[in-house]
Amino acid sequence: MTVPSSHRPRLRELGIELGRLPTGPLNAISDVAGVRVGVTTLIAGDGPLVPGTGPVRTGVTAIFPHEGNPYVAQVPIVVHVINGAGEVTGRSEIDEWALLETPICLTNTLSVGGVYDAVLTWMFRQAASLGHEAWVIPVVAECFDGHLNDIQGRHVREEHVLAALDGAVGGPVPEGSVGGGTGMTCHGYKGGNGTASRVAETGGGRWTVGALVQANHGARDDLRVGGLNVGRLLTPTPPVRTGEGSIIIVLATDAPLDTHQLRRLSARGALGLARTGSFAGNGSGDFVIAFSNYPGNLVPPEAHGAPRALTTLYNDDMNPLFLAAVECVEEAVLNALCAAGDMVGRDGHFAPGLPSDQLRDLWRAHTPSRNA
């Protein structure tokens, strides 16, 4: 039914290295110091769809901006809308205050409410820091996984969200059919979670930009790797679906950026997405959530009093970070595809894994100068 993600090579393990900036040690969003990721993956049942029962192919991904309590030390954040046929909760507060006060959770469309409520439960367990009149608006984003999953069943329960939150750690980040990416499809193949990072030297420092995507978008014929239109060259198989789909892109950086600069950085996520062949169709919910966890710019709740100092780069030093965002989003999408194996979902719907060996051979054949 499902090829475990750990058994499939990432893009660079196929000999395909994109971009010109170096990656972080793990080539993952967790290369941004302090960022933690947790997942709960739900796979159960086979056969015809029985709404409320299964088959189940879904889950939840939790992302923490740093090692501490996100409410006690809030980070600057923005949400950039590429195409808005989807949902990111808390967006109006982010537009107003530009601060993140909870973990970021990714899941399926109809589980947003349940995940939101579970995050509140988790936050209120931090009662000593929240107090009894805390204003808490969780950030939960979604993509639709109903082609493979019994989405009406809303199988992501409170205990699953709490497990993802409590289990969030640094280090290697699970990819492919895991967490919120479990039931996702991408460019006619099995999609899911993917991650990548880049390191940029600018403004007198060495900064990391990391991306984590929940990829559920795109058509087979549009898929590109390093500019090569592999979607039209791979051996044809029936595409899993031909809809426009959606993607959630989370960009993290340790660079000292203000919210205006974060908004500029987030817009570059769309350029990385376009490199893989997406054009953000009319029915797509394509969002970029970007935050900086630079320690000197963290904000305590209800901060007030004397003016605070804010450290930022100069705008003229932003170009290397822009390039980093483009490159790591591109590679995160492709890592999601590489990591996700075949999956059979509800009503026998089949999502084929990207044929890694074919992709490697096509790359070698069409880019000989890179493999000399």
Keywords:
single chain, alpha+beta, six-stranded mixed β-sheet, four-stranded mixed β-sheet, 7 helices, 24% strand, globular, disordered N terminus
CATH class: Alpha Beta
Give the strand order of the largest sheet, numbering strands 1, 2, ... along the chain: 4-3-12-11-10-9
Q: Determine the structural class based on helices, strands and strand pairing.
A: alpha+beta
Write down the Rg: 20 Å
Please mark out the parts with pLDDT under 50 across 5 or more consecutive residues, or reply none: 1-5
Shape: globular
Listing every helix as H and every strand as E from the N terminus to the C terminus, the arrangement reads EEEHEEHHEHEEEEEHEHEEH
Fraction of residues in H or I helices? 10-25%
* Main beta-sheet annotation: 6 strands, mixed
Q: Could you say how many structural domains there are in total?
A: 1
Termini Cα gap:
38 Å
Name the CATH architecture.
4-Layer Sandwich
Number of helices: 7
- β content, as a range? 15-25%
- Average pLDDT figure: 94
Total beta strand runs: 14
CATH topology assignment: L-amino peptidase D-ALA esterase/amidase
CATH superfamily: L-amino peptidase D-ALA esterase/amidase
Describe the fold and architecture.
With 372 residues, the protein is of the alpha+beta class. It has one domain (5-301, 311-347): 4-Layer Sandwich (L-amino peptidase D-ALA esterase/amidase). Helices cover 22% and strands 24% of the residues. The protein is built from seven helices and 14 strands. It has helices spanning 91-97, 112-124, 127-130, 158-166, 259-275, 319-339, 356-366, and strands spanning 36-44, 56-64, 75-84, 99-100, 104-108, 139-143, 185-186, 189-190, 192-202, 205-217, 245-253, 285-292, 343-344, 350-351. The strands form four sheets. The chain has a six-stranded mixed sheet with strand order 4-3-12-11-10-9, with helices on both faces. A hairpin with a 2-residue loop joins strand 9 and strand 10. The longest helix has 21 residues, at 319-339. Mean pLDDT is 94; it is low at 1-5.
